[in-house]
Design brief:
Bound molecules: BIS(adenosine)-5'-pentaphosphate
Structural class: alpha/beta
Largest sheet: 5 strands, parallel
Mean pLDDT: 93
Helix content: 40-55%
Order of helices and strands: EHEHHHEHEHEEEHEH
Strand order of the largest sheet: 2-3-1-4-8
Low-confidence stretches: none
Shape: globular
Length: 221
């Protein structure tokens, strides 16, 4: 079973690239942030548990996240192989993932880290709009929709995420970047890390990700 981990800071472009990669590689897109936002919108117990952490820019506790991951991973479509976006985000989550995969006789094939400096992340998150229906991401400067305010993919209205407010963005970066560095190091030591320069244009980043993920062509770094 193919398991790819997409790593990056908030705003690095994980969601943007995940759409392209899952289509190209035939994988299922499993994004913990999307699962939490859907739970918040539906008003479930999970949504209530996650909401306060997300709005403060903090990480949702590991036991909650790992439970959500395992439930989604157990669904039948995951057998096609998965692209993990936004999970794991701590060492404990990375270890839980390894344990779950070992139980299936599998392991993380590759962890690709989209590296973007903090100053660029502030601009990206400040200018991001997502569609109400499916969360397709746009940027007012770098990836505008064809029709202002409307999603190219599904025609739904574009909105801004609550956690993209400037004060929450700063909290997200302060809290989440140290944890990300630990996870990047975890996969470097495991010998499966590839690092991609995420400051390049979206289509260039896509091409470099594909090169890193194609069997026998990518190099661990
Ligand atoms: P989540 O939804 O995963 O948010 P995130 O990691 O903060 O990442 P983002 O969705 O903000 O950014 P992205 O990397 O997908 O960038 P995008 O493609 O949109 O998580 C939300 C919250 O849930 C977390 O804060 C946490 O509270 C909780 N959570 C989720 N998972 C968790 C976990 N495992 N453990 C604990 N808590 C968890 O791009 C950003 C913008 O830049 C867009 O406007 C895009 O158009 C633009 N852009 C993209 N690429 C480029 C490029 N190459 N050049 C120029 N612009 C670009």
């Amino acid at each position: 079973m193919r398991v790819i981990v997409l790593l990056g800071a908030p705003g690095a472009g994980k969601g943007t690239q995940a759409e392209f990669l899952t289509e190209r590689l035939g994988l299922v897109h499993l994004a913990t942030g999307d699962l939490f936002r859907a739970a918040v919108a539906a008003g479930t117990a999970l949504g209530l548990a996650a909401k306060e952490y997300m709005e403060r820019g903090e990480l949702v506790p590991d036991d909650v996240v790992i439970g959500v991951f395992k439930a989604r991973f157990a669904e039948p479509d995951a057998e096609r192989g998965v692209l993990l976006d936004g999970f794991p985000r701590t060492r404990a989550q990375a270890r839980a993932l390894d344990t779950a995969l070992a139980g299936e006789g599998s392991a993380v094939e590759r962890a690709v880290y989209i590296e973007v400096p903090a100053e660029d992340l502030l601009v990206r998150l400040g200018g991001r709009w997502i569609c109400r229906a499916h969360g397709h991401p746009y940027h007012e400067l770098y990836a505008p929709p064809r029709v202002p305010g409307i999603c190219d993919e599904d025609g739904s209205e574009l909105i801004q995420r609550v956690d993209d407010r400037p004060e929450t963005v700063r909290a997200r970066l302060d809290v989440q970047l140290p944890a990300l560095a630990e996870v990047v190091e975890y996969y470097r030591q495991a010998g499966v890390l590839a690092t991609i320069d995420g400051t390049k244009p979206i289509d260039v980043v896509s091409g470099e990700l594909i090169a890193a993920l194609e069997p026998r062509r990518g190099k661990a770094a």
